[in-house]
Amino acid sequence: MFWYARYSRALKSTMLLAGIIVLAGTWMPQPGWAAPSVTDALKYQPVQAGIHPDNPAPKDVERCTIKLSKINGSVAWVVRGPTGNVLRQFADSDGDNNVDTWSYFRDGLEIYRDIDADFNGKADQYRWFHWAGSRWGINTDEDPKNTIDNWKLISPEETAEQVVLALRAGNAPLFESLVLTPEEISKLGLAKAQAKQLTQRATEAKVAFKKLVDAGDIDKTTEFSDFGGLKPSMIPAGTHGSSKDIMVYENAWAMIKKGEDHQQLQLGTMVSVKGAWKLIDGPTLGGGQLGISVYVSGLGGAAGREAVVSPGEQPAERVQELLAELEKLDQKLASSPQQQKPSLNEARAKLLQAIAEVMPNQAEREQWFRQLADMVSAATQDGTYPAGVEVLGRMEKKLAADGESPEIVAYFEFHRLLAEYYGVTLADEDVDYAEAQAKFQKDLEAYVERHPRSDHGAEALRMLAVGSEMSGDVDEAVIRFRQILEEYPESSAAAVAKGAVTRLTSKGREIQLQGTDVGGGKIDLRDYRKKVVVIQYWTAGSPICKADHSVLSDLYKKYGGSRGLEIISVNLDFDRNQFLAYLKANRLPWKQLFEPGGFDSRLAREMGVVTVPLMLLVGVDGVVISNNIQAAEIETELKKLLPTN
């Protein structure tokens, strides 16, 4: 709940004495009356969880200011930090002398806003800005738990992330807010039969969510790491009797991580409702039940569901038969024991190939072939389709011989490489990891040379770069990361590549690191001149990081503070609560940075951090001495760098 719900009772009488109008915890001045204090203003916190605005350190509060200002035509209290940066902004948009917009800032930029849209003293809309995202959530019934039950804006990536968060917590209301409502479906301009079938699919999506939650495969340790899918499609008005253009994202998925295990979470089809990307299919894990979903393009149905087409434009009878078989097979896969999955996945692969081959045009055919490659590769990697590599290799050769596009052939080749390496090579208990990694690097290099502009080119280069860095060939890693920036500047890998180049070439140079300490107050590496600084990137689940903390704690006792050593730790856990629980159980008496997103956060991307532990050593002049120092090496360097007592 809003802070004022907990705080306004105690504060109300004193604020009235100060001459401030209070209504449900909001306040605005009247002529000649005193301003609220900075301390009171800073006690307001965002309604929704996971937002981390700037908060001054307790010792800096008295240097903060609060002033009434005119902001975009509205009167607002503006709270500024010691350096003049905005921390909070509380505005009265309708001139009734009550705050109805609460804004929270980070690094001078607004990252989140609570809005009282009906001016009844309670926030009912919530917006995220800048690097916090683009979401705009609505609490239509204004329940006391501030539950978002619909979205005015949400990107496909954020929808995928929210699905994972909902699964982690078993939060059915959150998931349901992401699913198309019957009212939204009725406004899409679909033919009656289409609308009816989409409504049914949306209902089934909620059942699928509960089934996945009950299965227990996704829990609080599961992290969202990436979003994937083909580019969005615009289905023009008139397709199968529709009256409006419809933007869809077919066959979307989220990559999730649980410990060291990576899996695909199939999300099916997303539909844009005026910028809010909503689901029509339920989530399914891995290759067992791939989220095949085609919305109105006539290619089929989600995860084996009946195709969403109007009665007069049904696909060929053979396609309908195959789709019916696929639906039955998916039902078996969803409930079958592990030992039966290989044979069921083999049957599923054959069905997908058969469906693809009877499709009337290339675009439709390739869409289904991609689903086949995704499904076989994922099932091979999770151990439920041992013959998957052979199937992918056979399809790769067949598609090339049949004259299919080079893009789809490259698609199968890439997924075969992944299936072979992760599903077969690394699954061997006697594997020689160095030898296996070397072969995988050569395979990726050959792939990039053969398919320099493939859909997976950036990802292949990223894998090559990370592999080179892990094997100690930093120069080669830099070359590959720079290749991503030159050839795939718009790819999701580009931000990581830019940061990685900065980090890997940082020795002998200055770097930047800024953020907010978890305990409050700004952290800027530039403020630590004349100190030797260890920068540590870590996660709570890494035993090596925990061992490093033991070493760092001893070093901090011996060299820390006035003796010249400072440590800045950057936590890359996805779950802030997991990070805080670790700090509570393990006292780390130095600065800690955390931002949402884990390895996708700003803090990780700025240095291209893709694995932990990782530590950098910065000298008293702000210049990097080592961009990859081991815990056991630090004391030797400190003895050289710090004055002897």
List the helices and strands and how they pair.
Layout: H1 3-17, E1 21-23, E2 26-28, H2 38-42, E3 65-71, E4 74-80, E5 86-92, E6 101-106, E7 109-115, E8 125-128, E9 136-138, E10 150-153, H3 156-169, H4 172-177, H5 182-186, H6 192-215, E11 222-228, E12 233-235, E13 246-258, E14 261-273, E15 276-279, E16 284-285, H7 317-335, H8 341-358, H9 362-381, H10 388-401, H11 406-425, H12 433-450, H13 457-470, H14 474-487, H15 493-504, E17 514-516, E18 522-524, E19 532-538, H16 543-559, E20 565-571, H17 576-585, E21 591-594, H18 602-605, E22 614-618, E23 624-626, H19 631-641
Parallel strand pairs: 19-20, 20-21
Antiparallel strand pairs: 1-2, 3-4, 4-5, 5-6, 6-7, 7-8, 8-9, 9-10, 11-13, 12-13, 13-14, 14-15, 14-16, 17-18, 19-22, 22-23
Explain how this protein is built.
This protein has 645 residues and is an alpha+beta fold. The protein has 5 domains: 3-138, no CATH class; 156-314, no CATH class; 337-431, no CATH class; 446-505, Serine Threonine Protein Phosphatase 5, Tetratricopeptide repeat; 514-641, Glutaredoxin (3-Layer(aba) Sandwich). It is built from 19 helices and 23 strands. It has an 8-stranded antiparallel beta sheet. Residues 1-33 and 287-315 have low confidence and may be disordered.
A few lines on this structure:
This protein is α+β, with helices and mostly antiparallel strands. It contains 19 helices and 23 strands.
- Count of helix runs: 19
What does the overall shape look like? globular
Integer tally of domains: 5
Q: Provide the spatial order of strands within the biggest beta sheet.
A: 3-4-5-6-7-8-9-10
Roughly how much helix do the residues carry, as a percent range? Answer: 40-55%
User: Given the helix and strand composition, which structural class is it?
Assistant: alpha+beta
Total E-strand runs: 23
